[in-house]
Amino acid sequence: MVPNMNSMKVLFWRGCTLRNILSETIAKIEYIFKKANIDVITLDIEGCCGYPLILAGYEKQFETCALNLLEKIKELQPDVIVTHCPGCLRTFIELYPRNGFEPLYAVHTTQLLLKLINLRNIELKNSINLKVTYHDPCDLGRHLGIYNEPREIIKSIPGITFIELPEISMGKYSRCCGGGGLIRLAIPPLASQIAIDRIIEDIVGLDVQAIITSCPTCVKTLFDASSIAENIYGVSLKVLDIIDLVYEAMG
């Protein structure tokens, strides 16, 4: 359940990937918040939620990281946290309590965006003539069960033609983009090959112009793989964050 953000103290948690690699997406999200009259606060020094540490098995370091972050957030006393990173979201609402910490009240940007669209707090007035499909991020989909919101957002954008992937490769059966489980950091060639396989084996046959996803790591991994796929296979395919679509449609 997404609350009424206009009456709440909202902390926008950017996450490491957006801060360090895809900062332009941060600006677009903040623009959307502003247009929807949602005032947000951010941490001056955000740090990491600790997700990579727990994935790598560094439990003590994860605990230290979590304690430091929870102390910072407690000082701000937000009513809700909004983040675009599925890994951060999963850490806040699932992994913190699993490891003995208090869970944080947090939602994904797509959950908030769909509510804003349905309430007409933001207007999607520009038509985007694009044939697209959607890639389910592992953490957002299989782990957190957030499947419908991104699809409803995509379908609400004027001009978009949405083509769903076959059932065996979407939703809870979606294949990883290659960036999950620290593979992108630990074994980059394997991550790249997994992403290329996702594009060539699952997506090219749909005859779409773009892959849409709602995870910064998926965006980066699939974008890099799309360049390789174009050079090797002659496949021309855009990789877009769902934020890009909403931002462009808002004008």
TrEMBL record:
Protein name per the record: (Fe-S)-binding protein
GO molecular function list: 4 iron, 4 sulfur cluster binding; metal ion binding; oxidoreductase activity
InterPro entries: Cys_rich_dom, HdrC_iron-sulfur_subunit
Coiled-coil stretches: none
Positions of the Cysteine-rich domain: 10-92, 132-221
Keywords attached to this entry: 4Fe-4S, Iron, Iron-sulfur, Metal-binding, Oxidoreductase
Source organism, top-level taxon: Archaea
